[in-house]
Amino acid sequence: MIVVDTNILAHLYLPGDFTALAEELLENDPEWAAPVLWRSEFRNILAGYMRRKSLHYEVARNLLREAESLMAGAEYEVDSRRVLELVRDSDCSAYDCEFVALAMSLGVTLVTMDTKLLRAFPKVAVALADR
Rounded CA gap, 113 and 127, in Å? Predict the structure, then answer.
């Protein structure tokens, strides 16, 4: 099992430069986990694509359904106190620290492309390209 941040999910479902790496990650590590927050972040990414007219509503709805299916049973609440401790000890947002807190509580790696997270939590976070 690994924890993935929302951008990894976005790269998996929205074709781009890193889609192949996200697909390879899923093939090699098919058990993905994330804090429940991923849903709101992913919906916001889809909303941006819809507003820019890069994605039709029906396509966005189907992508969200696929992502929710992938993550079913692997969404977790995180300890708020732990998130605030991670924020206190880094320059990362509380949103980002939710992913770190989950990875720490599960004893697994967080896969991300967020350079702040990679710098602040090198023992927990690993870059998508390095997987």
Answer: 5
Q: What is the pLDDT along the chain (131 residues), one digit of tens a residue?
A: 999 999 999 999 999 999 999 999 999 999 999 999 999 999 999 999 999 999 999 999 999 999 999 999 999 999 999 999 999 999 999 999 999 999 999 999 999 999 999 999 999 999 999 98
Whole-Å CA distances, 21 to 39, 70, 80, 121, 130: 21, 17, 31, 21, 10
- pTM attached to this predicted model: 0.96
Residues 6+ apart with CB under 8 A from 90: 97, 116, 120, 121
Cα gap 98→89, rounded to integer Å: 14
3-state secondary structure of 107: coil
Q: 75-76 and 110-112: which strand pairing?
A: unpaired
Phi, psi of 128 (to 5 degrees): -55, -45
Q: How many CB atoms lie within 10 A of CB 108?
A: 16
> Which residues, other chains included, contact 50 with Cβ-Cβ below 8 Å and sequence gap of 6+?
56, 57, 60
